[in-house]
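Re: the 382-residue chain
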Amino acid sequence: MERDTVTSKTTFLKFWISSLNPDQTLNGFGHEADETYFSLTDDTEGEYVNHYYFTDFLKQMFENFTPGIKIQDTSGKEVETDVLLYETLKFVVEQVMSIGGKHLNIQDVDLVIALPITCNNKVTRFVETYALKAGIRKDGLSIVSNGVAQYADEDDWDRNLAGSFQEKSIYFSVRFGDEQTTINKHMKYRKGIDPVIKSTTFPVGSHSILSDILSFLKDGLGTDVIEEFKSDSPEEYKSTIDEFMSNIMNFRMVICVPHPLKSITRREWKDDISNVLKNRIIDGSITESNCKMKMTEERIHRLCKSTFEKMMKKIVVVMEQEWPGNVKRLFMSGELANSKFFKAFLRGKMLKCSICIPKNAPLVVLKGSVYYEHVDSTQCSG
């Protein structure tokens, strides 16, 4: 569970990952769900097959929302949306109460839920219904949009830059997600949250780069090797892929090779991983030595270039359509905004507007949502 500490009694829900027992009761949420499920795959052979594991289930749940529909976990097993949402929110409430101890009452707890900006009022009412059933009182519940809430905390921005807007001036913000990118058109209102005039979402996010990384690894080591590594050692597989993604985004060229991957490669190819890579990636753009893989700068560019260019092309088109020639500043948030490589790519494109990135770009939505929940006078639309 990820929480902001504006007050010790506020809980913010952002990472919609859940794992369920065979009877469909929850046994983990957020990063705890990862740990619970992966511990089953490591320690209890075969038992995890009967458990459920959902990643970003909120996105899947609300893409074509109808109350009572079923959604599939990562292995194809189905659960009704209302059961999954209720069990998740009930679990969160129970966790908050256990953390607070005997001195914390449910009346003291505020719950902030940030939904995708594409969610409509029907979705909001559905989430509210099950949050109330889970035990949260109505005056302690806030359901906000990612797009509306993302720029509330101006302490994260350059004060001179953020404070130089004139009231009612137009600016744009871009939030880079895992699966999609959202471009919001804002009007400067006052200190706090600025209204969203229009929002555009397109299906390109950081996971597009992840897909290219996986394709490259399968080219280098073979599809069977990567799939066996994923099924036999899911926790180390996830850790390795996360490290690849993080290192590429920050232009670090060396990645540690876990022992299971080396063993599977040797068993499949009857050769060391270094020789397999040398024979299959003939341009030498990835090599292995002393349990470390190293990629060339040119290979990192190739893995990211397609996704970066798709994002930048769409951003430019939207800004020109909505406010031709007049965009002075572009605010960016999300994991990708923190990438040193992406920042260098943006500078190379010589955009005519200033690019503004907060000190901790991935947490902007979290902070903004909590701020919005606590400041009654804040006005926003979207």
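The chain has three domains: 10-147, 156-205+304-361, 218-301.
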